[in-house]
Amino acid sequence: SIWKDATGLKKVLGNYKSSLSFKTQISNAKNWSAEVPYLYTLYITLKDKNENVIEVIPQRIGFRSVEIKGSDLLVNGKRVFLKGVNRHEHNATQGHTLTHEDMRKDMEMMKKLNVNAVRHSHYPPDPYWMELCDEYGLYVIDEANIESHGRYYSLETTFGNDKQWRIPHLERITRMYERDKNHTSVITWSLGNEAGNGVNFYEAYEWLKQRDFRPVQYERAENDFNTDMIVPQYPDPNWLIHYSKGKSERPLIMSEYAHIMGNSLGNFKEYWDAIESSPKLQGGFIWEWIDQAIDTVKNGKRILAYGGDFPLEGPVNEDFSDNNFCVKGVVTAYRGLTPMAIEAKKVYQFIKSSYLSNKQVSINNSYFFRDISNFQLRWEVLEDGKIIETGLLNELPIGPRAAQTFALPIKTIVKAGKEYFLTLRYLLKT
Q1: Active site residues
Q2: Are 23 and 7 in contact (CB under 8 A)?
Q3: Is 359 left (phi over 0), alpha (psi -120 to 50) or beta?
Q4: Terminus-to-terminus CA distance in the chain, angstroms?
């Protein structure tokens, strides 16, 4: 126990409502981050007048700060990078109904692929997923269930600027906030997706800012006042560099980028070369996490079907489906790896290496809150594609945002006419 305080007591008379608020100072609390997701459990106990316990409500909580200072989004005072994905809820056999096993599988795969952030596109997720984000450590962009881009974005047509639609906008945003406000993983509130802008979003923004300290974002606000960050969709790396040199003072995090269809993600590294070398830029969210394909049988074979596999009779045909536009995930609908997943894992990696000379390598720890002493380095020398020498470096005492040079005991003598590679693999210690 790190805190217990009798001043938190308050009597509530029968058939009456009451609220309790208090402030306290907790010494030596460990910070929560996506890298070290340290959680505590807060217990709220209700007793009767005879001190008998009627009800105990546990709530897992963490301690962390989130703020925008200058042009930087800071978590626990650090200008973190968000290596994110957009996540729809999908199961190949059950549609948009996920099991707890599905959600835990998603979480474990994301962590293995170096993903540290998730945008809930475009609705608050199953509450169990929120618990996993707190537990495993993902920075969350929690997004309200608002999307109406069929009305397009002009102030004359969008529901976002139509006061008849004020209550549905406010209800969906306030319900998201009230449900998820105690989740430590939530670092930003999103007003919705592709639903224009206008008076309804202005009011919702003000409502959130009066109740919570966390930043609020909205892509269709663009440069308007009701987004604390610039969160564009699908800019190219050159546009990002141009923004970083411009006059805007707000941090930029891409709400959607690197649209994965077919054999894609070929220029993913160029995005991150720009992000890591420029001010104001702090990452983005790949579109999207999983192929939204359906397990079915066609011509006697089990396949993952896309929209065009379900033509309807009569005048309606596959043009009325999403066709192949629903198959664009980092992982397959069976939650299997793809070439894009491997590319994302490589570019999103937190440990980076470079070969210097004379068998020396520089190892850079780009984590913000942890050392890499729980990793070991396995190195391999390949000659014409065959492994001819291996070794293990078991101790990597490198602190956050620090680098260190190591000499590898390579004995291989290079021969003329041969091709050599040095492969470095960072593995968790068992």
Answers
A1: 194, 256
A2: no
A3: left
A4: 30
Q: How far is it, in rounded angstroms, from Cα 105 to Cα 108?
A: 5
Quick one: CA dihedral 177, 182, 185, 188, positive or negative? positive
Q: Pairing relation of β-strands 386-393 and 375-383?
A: antiparallel
**Residues 378 and 284 occupy one common structural domain:** no
The number of distinct structural domains making up the chain is 3
Considering only CA atoms, which of 119, 111, 113, 112 is closest in space to residue 137?
Answer: 111
In 3D space, the residue among 396, 415, 393, 412 whose CA is nearest the CA of residue 404 turns out to be 396
Strands (E), 206-298: 216-217, 252-257, 281-286, 294-298
The residue type found at 158 is T
> Residue 217 forms beta bridges with which residues?
190
**In which element (H, E) is residue 44 found?**
strand 40-47
Q: Is residue 144 part of a domain?
A: yes
CATH code for the domain of 388: 2.60.40.10
Take residue 332 and report the two structure tokens written for it: 């397959």
Last residue of a domain, one of 45, 61, 77: 61
Asked whether residue 140 falls in the same domain as residue 276, the answer is yes
- For residues 192 and 283, membership in a common domain is answered with yes
Question: Which among 203, 222, 230, 208 has a CA at the least distance from the CA of 153?
Answer: 222
The pLDDT tens digits of the residues spanning 182-218 come to: 999 999 999 999 999 999 999 999 999 999 999 999 9
The mean per-residue pLDDT over the stretch 352-370 comes to 96
CA geometry: angle 250, 255, 259, nearest 5 deg: 140
Query: Domain span at residue 374?
Result: 351-428
Q: Quick one: the chain helix, strand, coil %, rounded to 5?
A: 25, 30, 45
Q: What is the mean pLDDT of the chain?
A: 93
Angstrom distance (rounded) from CA 107 to CA 396: 26
My answer on whether 334 and 387 are in the same domain is no
- Locate tokens 């009597």: which residue? 11
Global pTM value? 0.93
Q: What is the DSSP letter of 358?
A: T
Residues 361 and 394 in one domain: yes
Do residues 117 and 34 lie in contact, with contact meaning Cβ atoms separated by under 8 Å?
yes
Q: Report the C-alpha gap between 319 and 14 in whole angstroms.
A: 61
